Amino acid sequence: MGFEMKAEKDVLELISSKNQCKAKNSNPNSVNSPHNNKKKNIRKKSKKMMMTWRRKKTDSSPEDEITAVRRLFNTCKEVFSDGGPGIVPSEDKIQQLRQILDNMKPEDVGLTPTMPYFRPNAGLGNGSSPPITYLHLHQCDQFSIGIFCLPPSGVIPLHNHPGMTVFSKLLFGTMHIKSYDWVVDAPMKDPKTRLAKVKMDSTLNAPCNASILYPEDGGNMHRFTAKTACAVLDVLGPPYCNPEGRHCTYFLDFPIEIFSSEEDDVLRGEMGKESHAWLQERDDNPEDLNVVGALYRGPKVDED
Ligand SMILES: [Fe+2]
């Protein structure tokens, strides 16, 4: 609401300054008319005052008036400017973006927990996830920004982020995250089943810092489970892109002892069953994925 009022004020200022120009041009004789000297002096004074007022306004405006999402967008442009698949931004840039996200709040993107996206869906009761809403904020070749709105018990099934660096900021609520990375050089169980190591298995409570995952580590495969209604702001660099081979793959995770063999007994002995699992590729559209898109209505993100 505050954002709209500011925009309206800017529009009024613009109309006002255009009207001043029109008034000046409507009577060309007034500038040279001798009996207008007094008026000219008054005009000069008021013009001077206006210029001073405008200068003061300009001096205080640049960084103070930028919205949090616009700051996020500008930072993403900088951080991912020379990015690409498998390219991790420098540590400086990562910290720069992390700091912006760490400080972001639901109101910065126009969200409150009372919105319909977050209402518990009492009618389900069949164990499947209630609908999750995705709000698209921006996408370009370098990065994408979006928000997942999860009602209580909402689940985003286990999925990967090929070649990407991903920042996830829990804006409000309580959410469990389980994430994995591949075990490099481990034997494949079959062409669709591979050994992974648990990176994270914990519950986050907002307000909290942003989580970051990388192309090869940091928990590139993850599952989100909403313990309460929650909202997650996601920044992906680069974004998913099917033509470029970066599509989202879903997985099921199985304890390592479920596929038992002598070879696996050796693996279990070496790695410990608590921290490892088999990840098996699923169909592209798993039946427990229930995400619907909705129009983002928060403060304006990009320059369009
Ligand atoms: Fe994800």
UniProtKB/TrEMBL annotation:
Keyword tags: Cytoplasm, Iron, Metal-binding, Nucleus, Oxidoreductase
Compositional bias (Basic residues): 36-57
Cellular component terms (Gene Ontology): cytosol; nucleus
One function term, GO molecular function aspect: cysteine dioxygenase activity
Subcellular location: Cytoplasm; Nucleus
Ranges of Low complexity composition bias in the record: 22-35
Domain of life: Eukaryota
Pfam families linked: PCO_ADO
EC number: 1.13.11.20
Cofactors that this protein relies on: Fe(2+)
UniProt-annotated stretches for the region Disordered: 19-62
Catalytic activity: L-cysteine + O2 = 3-sulfino-L-alanine + H(+)
GO biological process: anaerobic respiration; detection of hypoxia
InterPro entries (UniProt xref): PCO/ADO, RmlC-like_jellyroll, RmlC_Cupin_sf
Family to which the UniProt record says this protein belongs: Belongs to the cysteine dioxygenase family.
Protein name as annotated: cysteine dioxygenase
Lineage, uppermost ranks: Eukaryota, Viridiplantae, Streptophyta, Embryophyta, Tracheophyta
